[in-house]
Specification:
Blueprint: H1 10-31, H2 33-39, E1 53-54, E2 59-61, E3 72-74, H3 84-109, H4 115-138, H5 146-170
Helix pairs in contact: 1-3, 1-5, 2-5, 3-5, 4-5
Length: 172
């Protein structure tokens, strides 16, 4: 049943991964950046759309999410000069790849061939696995507003399940 690796459309996996990365980047910055920062208790941190931006010169650009205030604050020299932006781009990209491959394996193992079945599958995976795990992760003492975190992140992961399923069925 799960010997489907040779059946997987790897171009669909790559496109699904890139779609998740693009949608995630927009979701957590442009669309829900302020709400995401609020959920994490970082609404007053230097940011652009709720996400801190480290410039090449080691200066953090501050913004409020709607109109960027290019106030510059020099970073503490004792803080590592490692650029966290790469981790925040590659980490979700790799996780999106792993999620997309896992969904592709299940997709082909269950022989999903119609858009309706793909949407049901994507909804089950998106809500029952991805979003539920995200909400559960948010319910801990380190997330100041777990319900907002669960709503913002969980809805992205629900949408992710649908996006990957649509791409997989369209390219099967």
């Amino acid at each position: 049943m799960f010997n489907v690796i040779q059946e997987i459309n790897w171009l669909a996996v790559v496109l699904g991964t890139l779609a998740l990365s693009l949608v995630g980047g927009l979701w957590f910055t442009v669309v829900w950046g302020k709400a995401y920062a609020y959920a994490l208790g970082k609404e007053h941190s230097p940011s652009e759309n709720g996400v801190a931006v480290l410039k090449e010169d080691g200066i953090v650009s501050a913004g409020n999410g709607r109109n960027v205030n290019h106030t510059k604050q020099h970073m503490n020299p004792s803080i590592s000069q490692e650029k966290p932006a790469l981790r925040f781009i590659l980490g979700p990209l790799v996780c999106g790849l792993v999620t997309t491959v896992a969904m592709a394996v299940l997709f082909y193992a269950f022989e999903i061939e119609t858009l309706a079945d793909a949407l049901i599958f994507g909804g089950i995976v998106g809500a029952g696995l991805l979003a539920a795990t995200t909400v559960n992760t948010g319910i801990n003492p380190n997330i100041p507003r777990p319900l907002v975190y669960g709503l913002v992140s969980g809805s992205y992961f629900f949408l992710s399940g649908l996006i990957v399923s649509i791409i997989l069925v369209a390219m099967s």
